[in-house]
C-alpha cells in the first residue's frame, strides 16, 4: 500500500499555488534512474532531473551507499574551527573539475546561499584590496539567483522582488533575449554580444570605483532557458576585468555536465572569478551548495586579514558529512560514466528532436543548448501562464515530468537519458500540446 498523507494542511509548499495543489495534489513516491513513480504506481519519465538536480539519474547505488556509510560513521561535525576529511576531499575534487584557477571552495546548503556567499565574498575581496568603495552589485533582468535577500536583489524576476526589501546599491543589465533576432536558436544565438556593453553604461553612470561584482547565469534557466549570445560572456569578462569588477557565474543549473563540460564556464570558454553551484553537486541527494573561488580572490581575503577569522560568514552545515559523501560519489559517477561530456554528445540529437516541435500547436519559440531546452508557448488571452500549467498537468498525468515557468516549458533531463527517451519526451509534449486549448 502506498504511504499516503492523511492531512495536506501543514506543509506550506514553496513556489506553489498551494490552494490549487491541495485541491488536486500530485505526489511522487519513489524514483530510479530516469523515472519517478507516483504513490499509486504510475511511472513518470523525468524530463527535468527533478529540478535541474539529478544529473546522473535517480537513487544511483554508489551515491546511496556513500550517504548511508557517512550517516553511520560521522553524522555531523562542525566546520567552525574544526573539520572532517570528507569536506576537504570534496573541496579538492570540486576544485579539480572547476576551471583552472578556481582553487578554493566555500560550502553552503543551497544555491541561494551560494549566491549570497559569493556576493559577500566579492564585497570582502574589494575591501581587502583597498577598494572599500566598491559595494555596488550588478545583476541582470530575467535572472534567477535564488531567494535570499542578496540573490533576490540582483535577480531580475519581478514577482520575487516586489514584495520584499531589496538591497540598496544594486543595478541590472538588460536581459539577452530578443525574439525577432534569436527565435528557434540552437546553442548560443548569433545576435546580441553587444548587449554586454550595457555594463560600460553602468560603469559610466555609477563609476567603476563603486562597482564590486557582476553576477549572471551563463544560461538563464528559471526565466525560460535563455542562452548567451555568442561572444556576450567574453565581452562581459573583458569589461569586468578592465574595470576591476569581479565576475560571478551562477552555475546552479549549468554546473555538473548540463552543457557538456563540468561547468558552463568551460563549455563556453569564459572563466569568471567565482562560480556558484548546488543541485548537481550531490546529484540532488543531499542539500548542498558551494562557491568556487579564484585563487587571487581567496588570497587577497585570507592573506590580507588581521590574525583570526578572515571571513565572518558560514553555515552550521557548511561541508556536512552526508552532503560531502554524496558530492564525492556524484562526481565519481559523472566522471566514470562520461556524463560531463554527454550533454555535448547528445546536444545535436536533442536539438533536432526538440526543434521538431516547431510546428506543434501554440509553440512560438524553441531554444536549445547542451541538454537544456525552452519551448515557449503563446499565452492565452488575459491568462498568462494558464496554458503552461495545463500542459504541465497534462504531461504529468500522461507520464512525463516537465517544468513550466509561465508559458515556457523548460526541459533538463538526467544526462543518462537515451535517444528513445528523448523521442518519448517529444512525443508526449506534442500529444499534450494537441490536447490543450
Ligand atoms: C541559477 C540559480 N541560482 C540559484 C538558485 C537557487 O538555488 P536553491 O533553490 O538551491 O536555493 C537556482 C534554483 O533554481 C538557480 O537556478
From TrEMBL:
InterPro entries: Aminotrans_3 (IPR005814), Aminotrans_3_PPA_site (IPR049704), PyrdxlP-dep_Trfase (IPR015424), PyrdxlP-dep_Trfase_major (IPR015421), PyrdxlP-dep_Trfase_small (IPR015422)
Keyword terms: Aminotransferase, Pyridoxal phosphate, Pyruvate, Transferase
MF GO annotations: adenosylmethionine-8-amino-7-oxononanoate transaminase activity; pyridoxal phosphate binding
TM region(s), chain numbering: none
One Pfam family linked to the record: Aminotran_3
Entry's Gene Ontology BP terms: biotin biosynthetic process
Domain of life (superkingdom): Bacteria
Cofactor or coenzyme needed: pyridoxal 5'-phosphate
Family that this chain belongs to: Belongs to the class-III pyridoxal-phosphate-dependent aminotransferase family.
PANTHER family registered for this protein in UniProt: ADENOSYLMETHIONINE-8-AMINO-7-OXONONANOATE AMINOTRANSFERASE, BETA-ALANINE--PYRUVATE AMINOTRANSFERASE
Protein name according to UniProt: Beta-alanine--pyruvate transaminase
Taxonomic source organism: Edaphosphingomonas laterariae
